[in-house]
Amino acid sequence: MKTESMSDRVNNLVKAMRAEVPDCVAAGVVDMSTGMLLAVDTMDSHPNEVLDMLAAATFDLFRGRNVVTIENIFKERRGVVSNSHYFQEILVNSENLVHLFLRSASNDDLVAVAVCRRTVNVGMLFASARRVVKEYNIA
User: Fold this and answer.
1) Which pTM does this prediction carry?
2) Which domain holds residue 12?
């Protein structure tokens, strides 16, 4: 029995997100330790600069200076002593799209991104995306 490489799991996760998350027009995985987009699958072709900006924006959402400060304040006020990150999922609504960012439960350096049409049922978006990320266990 052949075991999948990390690269294969990331690529398969992105394909599964596009196929199984309702109204999904694009999916990707960002490595927070390097700030790089590891994989992407999208309906339209986008210039590399746009994809690089997605990776940078994802990094800022989860590890920007102000975000880390807020996480630390929340943990301190709640008496949590841990190096883990407080924010695990972030939903962003734009004019035409919904962007869901999910931190991997097994490796907090990896964030999966699903971009869907604004018509998506947000509950189904969360349920489907969470199931796919858990299934592919990107560690």
Assistant:
1) 0.88
2) 6-136
